[in-house]
Design goal:
The chain has one domain (4-167): Cyclic phosphodiesterase (Cyclic Phosphodiesterase, Chain: A). It is built from four helices and nine strands, in the order βαββαββαβαβββ. The two termini are 21 Å apart. The chain is 26% helix and 40% strand. The protein has a five-stranded antiparallel β-sheet with strand order 2-6-5-4-7, with helices on both faces. It has a four-stranded antiparallel β-sheet with strand order 3-1-8-9, with helices on one face. A hairpin with a 6-residue loop joins β8 (166-171) and β9 (178-184).
Amino acid sequence: MNAVVRVFLSIDIEERALLSRILQIQQKLNPQGAKMKLVEPDNIHFTIRFFGDTPIARINQIQDCLKEIKITPFEIKIVGVGAFPNKRKPRVIWIGVSDNSQLIIDLKLRIDNLLREIGYEVEKTKFTPHATIARVRSIKDASQIFSNLEELANEPVGNMTVKSISMKKSTLTSSGPIYDTLWMI
């Protein structure tokens, strides 16, 4: 490993049936409305905290800091397709959490509070549990993409059990990022 690696904390989506369902939803995204890059199913996850380029010693410090986090497994329901910053001008298209999203928010708060002890600021943006499924490169027809996203707003995706959080190393390549798990809590 290099002395500095690009890392983030995530809740991984590992169930093949759920990833297959997400792929079906990605296929429903209308390419006539926007030019977009679909996220590879194996790379779809819920980001809890993005650190960016981080020294390995700091990654070990984060791991030590978060050792007291214990996750009691809980079920989430994944429903609906949304977009950041909004459906009229999407840059990121995501799937969201309907049931027990507050448990993910509370978990992130616990993590953020622990990370403050080692010098990380609490992130200022409001945290919305979501998993990115596509990135919009350019909009061809704003009304068409808006209409497509509205149709998918309540699309059922599936359920999954949250059991752990992973520290992921992200290696950027010309064909997309490659994620490797460094450790789990």
